[in-house]
Write a structure and sequence with these properties.
With 258 residues, the protein is an alpha/beta fold. It contains 7 helices and 15 strands. The protein starts with a strand and ends in an 8-residue tail after the last helix.
C-alpha cells in the first residue's frame, strides 16, 4: 500500500493522516469550520500539509451522511450543516489530480477496527460512533455490510416513539445526563444484540473515548436486562485506535482480508 491520505470529517473536528499500510507517517487535526468556504479552504490546506515532502497516491474521505461511493456525492450530512450536497471526489480531484474515494464516516471507523483494531478477532461485530451524532457500521462474517445504496448501518436512525434514536442520545449527551445516556444506549445496544447477535460492539467517537467511564458500566447493566439471549451478551469495547475514522478512510484503498 502506497502513501494514502485519510480524512475523517466530523461535526467538530477534521482529522487527517498519511498511512502507508503499516504506520501513520503524518497526522493533523483541525476544527470543522462553520462556513462552506472555510470548510473547502481548510480541506485543501489539510491535504497540502499532509503532502509536504511525500508522494501521495490517493485520498480517502469519510463523512457523516448518505454517501454515494460511486459518484462521490455526500448528502444529508450532519457534519457539514451548511451544504446539503457536495461532491467530495470532484472537489479533491480538481486540485490534487489524485484518485479519491469516499465513504460514510462510521463505515470508515468500522473498517479500521476490522483490519487494524479490536475487530480483527471477531467474525461479527458492530462499530458504534458516539460523537456529534450516533452512527454505526455492521460487520457480518468479516465483511462490512453495505445495504442498498451503501446506506446500511444507520443505527442512529432507528425510530423510537416517532423520533430517531440519535435524538434521544443527543439530548442526554448535551445535558451531560449520563444516567439517562446509559438508559438510552443500554436499550439500544440490547436491540442491536437481539437483531444481529454480534460478538462485540466496538465504540468510537469523542463521547466514547473521553467519557466512557461515566456511562459504560451502567449501560452494560441496562443492556443485559433487555437481552433476549442473556447467555450471548456481546462484549462492549472502546476503540484503541488513534484517528480510526481517518485510518478507515485511507483503507478504502486496501481490500479487507477475511
Amino acid at each position: 500500500m502506497q502513501n494514502i491520505i485519510g480524512i475523517d470529517i466530523g461535526g467538530t473536528k477534521i482529522a487527517g493522516v498519511v498511512f502507508n499500510g503499516k504506520r501513520v507517517l503524518q497526522e493533523l487535526t483541525i476544527a470543522t469550520p462553520n462556513t462552506f468556504n472555510g470548510f473547502k479552504r481548510n480541506l485543501y490546506k489539510l491535504v497540502d500539509f499532509l503532502s509536504v515532502n511525500r508522494k501521495i497516491s490517493g485520498i480517502g474521505v469519510g463523512c457523516a451522511g448518505l454517501v454515494n461511493s460511486a459518484t462521490g456525492m455526500v448528502r444529508l450530512t450532519s457534519s457539514v450543516k451548511f451544504k446539503a450536497q457536495f461532491n467530495m471526489v470532484a472537489f479533491f480531484k480538481a486540485k490534487f489530480h489524485l484518485p479519491v474515494k469516499v465513504d460514510n464516516d462510521a463505515s470508515c471507523f468500522t473498517r479500521a477496527e476490522l483490519i487494524l483494531g479490536q475487530g480483527e478477532k471477531f467474525q461479527n461485530f458492530l462499530g458504534v460512533i458516539l460523537g456529534s451524532g450516533l452512527g454505526g457500521g455492521i460487520v457480518i462474517n468479516r465483511q462490512l455490510y453495505r445495504g442498498k445504496n451503501n446506506s446500511g448501518g444507520e443505527i442512529g436512525h432507528i425510530v423510537v416513539n416517532k423520533l430517531f434514536l440519535q435524538k434521544f442520545y443527543q439530548i442526554a449527551r448535551d445535558r451531560n445526563n449520563y444516567s439517562r445516556l446509559s438508559e438510552v444506549l443500554g436499550q439500544a445496544f440490547a436491540s442491536f444484540a437481539n437483531i444481529f447477535a454480534p460478538d462485540a460492539l466496538i465504540l468510537g467517537g469523542g463521547v466514547s473515548l473521553n467519557a466512557h467511564a461515566k456511562f459504560l458500566p451502567q449501560t452494560q447493566n441496562v443492556m443485559r436486562k433487555f437481552l433476549f439471549d442473556k447467555f450471548s451478551a456481546p462484549k462492549i469495547l472502546v476503540s484503541k485506535l488513534k484517528n480510526a475514522g481517518a485510518l478507515g478512510a485511507a483503507l478504502l484503498f486496501k481490500e479487507s482480508k477475511s
